[in-house]
Amino acid sequence: MTPNQVPLTAQEPLTTRIKICGVSTPEAIQVAAEAGANGIGFVRAKGSSRYIDYEQASALLKHVPDGLTSVAVYVNAPLEEVMALKANAIQLHGQEDEIMIESIKANMPETFVIRGFPFSRPHLNRWQETPGIHAVLVDGQSAGSGRGFDYEPLMNIRHTMTHPLIVAGGLTPDNVGDAITLLQPWAVDVSSGVESAPGVKDHGAIRAFCQAVREADQIRTSN
Hints:
Blueprint: E1 17-21, H1 26-35, E2 39-43, H2 54-61, E3 69-74, H3 79-84, E4 89-92, H4 98-107, E5 112-118, H5 121-128, E6 135-139, H6 152-157, E7 165-167, H7 176-183, E8 187-190, E9 195-197, E10 200-201, H8 203-222
Parallel strand pairs: 1-2, 1-8, 2-3, 3-4, 4-5, 5-6, 6-7, 7-8
Antiparallel strand pairs: 9-10
């Protein structure tokens, strides 16, 4: 764990957390940890180019070092599947409803829950008011596509948000600094922006992304 690194689920407000999503190799986990990432995402959504099955995800969990939060990402999976993998956090990114959130809270009370959705004011209002959510992840209209969204509507209501904000969608080492400056998120989430091909993580890009986040943090705190 680097000096700037704290778990994704920690509460210290000193740095923007970094989640590298769609990781599928022990090498990428190691690179992310050494670069200063705070969270690693395992995509458990079938149909995604980054999908890994239960056995693969379980094996990768053994390579996650202390201080790095493991996040299992699901899209419309049954509760039994969501509960099976013992990751530190769960990210729901489909049509899951409040009943699913309540079930997770009842069965896995210590698990950090992230609710992901494409940006819209109704979505944001809905999940801001839902008990059991620890953070909201605002994405582009198509998760994992590498396409972002217009930040201005979110900027206009950013001050009203009560949950920690994770920003995703089209982030790269070149533009993540702008997202941090404009939205001041609790965390940023990247997948395709640090890949050489769909599902193939580029180790140099992971390092560059983490460095860009830390540079943006330094600028923000110095102003």
